[in-house]
Amino acid sequence: MKVLLVDGTIFGRKTGVLLETIEQHIKKYNAEYDVQILSFSKLQHQILDGSPLNDDMKYMIQQFEKADAYVFASPIFQASIPGVLKNAFDMIPPKAMRYKPAAIVANGGTTQHHLVIEHQLKPILDYFRTLVTPNYVYTHGAHFNEQNEIIDEDVHARLDELARVFVAYCEMSKNLAVEKVEA
């Protein structure tokens, strides 16, 4: 199973730390998974404006299409997901993620910004018909030290539980045939 961990920002380090941690937990529950981090900060982004896509955007789309499951990490800026993440969703073909497991981790400046997951990320992933885990992990600045290490034990426990449920979703999805009708 190919699992794509998507670091959906070009700024900061906390989302990357969350994904590196969740990668360890996923491998604890199934060491056979091929887990890869796709860091948006390493890509040359372009806005979806009708012009031909550059090689980095073609590569990004191919990674989404080839993956069997996803963990999305997003910072919350101005009570919203970053523009590069939304732009990426706009580029992905609607059936690319259909019936594939997905989980969400996010980081924001306040405790209230966890609602962005409920009101923005989940509806987008529902549009793609992904199998979104019922649990997600939201963190804020107090959960990290100055070196961007997670210092909150509850966050570690929630990341472990997210990985456990995500791996169970991955295993269940292996027998789910992708629907061939247009939607």
Please, could you describe this protein's structure?
The protein has helices at 14-29, 55-66, 83-91, 115-127, 153-173, and strands at residues 2-7, 34-39, 69-75, 101-108, 131-132, 137-140. Strands 1, 2, 3, 4, 5 and 6 form a 6-stranded parallel beta sheet that branches. α1 crosses α5 (153-173). 39% of the residues lie in helices and 18% in strands. α3 links the parallel β3 and β4 (101-108). The protein is globular and about 45 Å long. This is NADH-dependent FMN reductase.
Briefly say what this structure is.
The chain is α/β, with parallel strands linked by helices.
**Rounded Rg:** 16 Å
Please tell me the total number of domains: 1
pLDDT < 50 runs, ≥5 residues? none
User: How far apart, in Å, are the first and last alpha carbons?
Assistant: 26 Å
Topology record:
Blueprint: E1 2-7, H1 14-29, E2 34-39, H2 55-66, E3 69-75, H3 83-91, E4 101-108, H4 115-127, E5 131-132, E6 137-140, H5 153-173
Parallel strand pairs: 1-2, 1-3, 3-4, 4-5, 4-6
Could you name the key traits of this structure?
183 residues, Rossmann fold, 39% helix, FMN
